[in-house]
Amino acid sequence: MTTTSASATARAGTLALTGLTPLVWGTTYAVTSEFLPPERPMFTALMRALPAGLVLLAATRVLPRGRWVWRTGVLGMLNIGAFFPLLFLAAYRLPGGVAAVLGASAPMFALGFAALLLGERPSGRRLLAAVVGISGVALVVLRAGAALDTWGVLAGLAGAASIAAGTVLAGRWGRPEGVGPLAFTGWQLTAGGLVLLPLALLAEGAPPALDARAIGGYLYLGAIGTAAAYALWFRGLSRMPATSVSFLSLLSPLSATVIGWAALGQSLTPLQALGMAIALGGTLLGQTGGRKPTEETAAQRVSAVDPARRESCDVGRAA
Question: Where is the stretch described as Disordered (predicted)?
């Protein structure tokens, strides 16, 4: 196998593995509606984040140090502490289709943040991919006469912007040397969960009584839908451009629709099937191109290959 073909195979494998994350996220809607107590969005956000984060911290026994303390706080807020409640607020105040379309705007936000933070000018191809992806999702989930709520719309857009900014920043900063995806995920889940804890208590009061179904639902969301899924997401960010990873989020509403049809008896029309094909096309089109690694990321990658070359990078950076 040639170097080029091996690289293409590795990229395809990374793409497929990272794409599992939004597919798993798509199960959240069905689990929430079928297993969890109603009208408790903040408590659900808290239960998704904090227990999983604490378990990962205990398992990996690695804590952030130096500048990674405040970086973890920023990433934890964007990817977890702000994103989770905004996501649930939009879901509770808007029809599911409208909330999903607003969430599908994340790649467009990611292109804007990449231009600001990474100096990566959005290509016409990627702008087209974002429009195609949103259009495909709209065909899948929107229904005629869908009602709009101003606060719900603002929450949906803010949530999409939050996860997009967190994705781009995580791609720019990378991970500290020697820290794996599980530890990195645990840092952010714990930071975001600690933000959510007082908010949930103030907004919703004491936790509700939980039966076996609810406990099982929260265990699934925490272990699979959050800890494992985010670890794959951040692993992909260390190997792919942030904007490419962001386009994979378009798979989440498609996954939710298929699960609703297969498990909950919801309808699936030919127009929805066409929308899925269009959204998938936008997702694949968004994988073309990529940003140049930042200086820090480049140095980290060199150090992982050759310690002698790492010293060269450090000297060059000091100069």
Answer: 289-319
